[in-house]
């Protein structure tokens, strides 16, 4: 019963391709996922970290991640005005009639996890993974972000292995590690900021005490090089006057109101 609507969503009707790595990885996932949104970086973040997205021929079973090639394989999905209703009906039917793993439900959670904004949709659309027949990429993002989470625990080995591999690669990047370190231990820790402010205050007090004793202005003075005078009245002999006018001067009469 799920075959016809599922084939409607995916652009190809080829037989599902199987990945040997997915079969071998079924025993590596033992813990069921939590009833929460999947923790996985968005498409934009993955692309920035060097991940390539490639369209596969087939259905959900072709989803995988190759750490060596740094490639995320996803099937092509077509979305139009009826897609959201179909997705919700498929998820509801699978939950109520399937006793085994909720494969399609897990797929919608995966797409919900990697798509946050219209920029994520744009990147997938440019790769041919999303066929957008809606008005904008923003509407596609709303469709995936509006999907409800699974109402019961489920275990889909090949999808969970894909999510695990993606997170392992992404979290291993030094840029990501540095960003997380800054967020957690610098910007997210008031203790660190308090210590940093204390150190800066101590340095300023030390500098102030040093300058009060050794007169920092004299240490920073520079010797004058060049002609000693910057102005001359162009007269000769004893009437010649020269002066250095490189400092600010002010007429004491400026700003005064003339007497009436």
Commentary on this structure:
The protein is mainly α and 260 residues long. It folds into two domains: 3-173, no CATH class; 189-217. It is built from eleven helices and seven strands. A hairpin with a 4-residue loop joins strand 2 (64-66) and strand 3. Helix 6 (118-126) packs across helix 7. The chain starts with a helix and ends in a 17-residue tail after the last strand. The relative contact order is 0.13.
Estimate what percentage of residues fall within beta strands. Answer: 5-15%
Largest sheet: spatial strand order = 1-3-2
Oligomeric description of these chains:
single chain
Cα gyration radius (Å): 34 Å
Q: How many distinct beta strands?
A: 7
Low-pLDDT segments:
11-35, 248-252, 254-260
SSE string, helices as H and strands as E = HHHEEEEHHHEHHHHHEE
Q: Mean pLDDT, nearest integer?
A: 76
How many domain regions? 2
Cα-to-Cα separation, first versus last residue: 103 Å
Count, helices: 11
Helical/strand content category: mainly alpha
Shape: elongated
- What share of residues is helical? 40-55%
**Main sheet characteristics:** 3 strands, mixed
């Amino acid at each position: 019963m799920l075959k016809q609507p599922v084939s409607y969503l995916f652009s190809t009707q080829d037989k599902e391709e199987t990945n040997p790595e997915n079969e071998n990885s079924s025993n590596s996932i033992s813990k069921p996922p939590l009833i929460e949104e999947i923790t996985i970086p968005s498409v934009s973040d993955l692309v920035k970290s060097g991940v390539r997205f490639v369209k596969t021929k087939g259905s959900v079973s072709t989803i995988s991640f190759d750490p060596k090639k740094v490639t995320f394989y996803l099937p092509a999905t077509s979305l139009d005005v009826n897609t959201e209703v179909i997705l919700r009906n498929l998820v509801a039917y699978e939950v109520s009639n399937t006793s085994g793993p909720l494969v399609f439900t897990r797929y919608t959670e995966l797409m919900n996890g990697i798509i946050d904004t219209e920029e994520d949709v744009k990147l997938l659309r440019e790769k041919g993974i999303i066929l957008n027949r809606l008005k904008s990429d923003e509407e596609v993002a709303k469709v995936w972000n509006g999907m409800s989470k699974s109402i019961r625990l489920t275990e889909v080995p090949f999808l969970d292995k894909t999510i695990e591999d993606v997170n392992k690669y992404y979290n291993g990047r030094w840029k990501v590690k540095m960003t997380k370190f800054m967020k957690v231990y610098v910007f997210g820790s008031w203790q660190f900021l308090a210590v940093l402010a204390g150190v800066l205050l101590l340095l300023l007090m030390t500098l102030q005490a040093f300058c009060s004793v050794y007169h920092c202005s004299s240490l920073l003075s520079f010797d004058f090089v060049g002609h000693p005078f910057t102005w001359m009245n162009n007269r000769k002999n004893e009437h010649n006057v020269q002066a250095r006018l490189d400092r600010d001067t002010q007429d004491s009469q400026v700003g005064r109101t003339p007497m009436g």
